[in-house]
Amino acid sequence: MRALVRTKIGRYSLVGPPRLDLESFAGRAGLHPDLVRRLVALGLLEPYRDAAGHLWFAPEQLAEVARIERLRAGFCLNYAAVGLVCDLLDRIADLEAALRRRSGRTGGSSWT
After folding, report:
1. Do strands 20-21 and 55-57 pair parallel, antiparallel, or not at all (unpaired)?
2. How far apart (Å, rounded) are the C-alpha atoms in residues 78 and 71?
3. Starting at the edge strand that comes first in sequence, how are the strands of the sheet with 48-49 ordered?
4. What is the pLDDT along the chain (112 residues), one digit of tens a residue?
């Protein structure tokens, strides 16, 4: 009689996470690839850079581009100022989330 040997087999994804190259990302965002490169240089977008130096973007970053473009058009800001506004909005969101967590633990009411 043969004994069954069970081995632990790891699971590996055969397909990597979805990502877009520079041209595809720029096309979906409705921007010129040079403008996307500029947003990367300003730190407004953080793509993955492969060993060959090519830029790869997560599809979720399209929402960040839309946010950047809304702020730029709505407030007539340059891209450097948009970066500052985005940082401030993210900080406000973090502080509000911390306040909600704190209120939830103490049973207190909201400040609004």
Report:
1. antiparallel
2. 9
3. 20-21, 55-57, 48-49
4. 445 555 556 566 566 678 999 999 999 999 999 999 999 999 999 999 999 999 999 999 999 999 999 999 999 999 999 999 999 999 999 999 999 999 877 665 555 5
Contact between 17 and 3 (Cβ < 8 Å): no
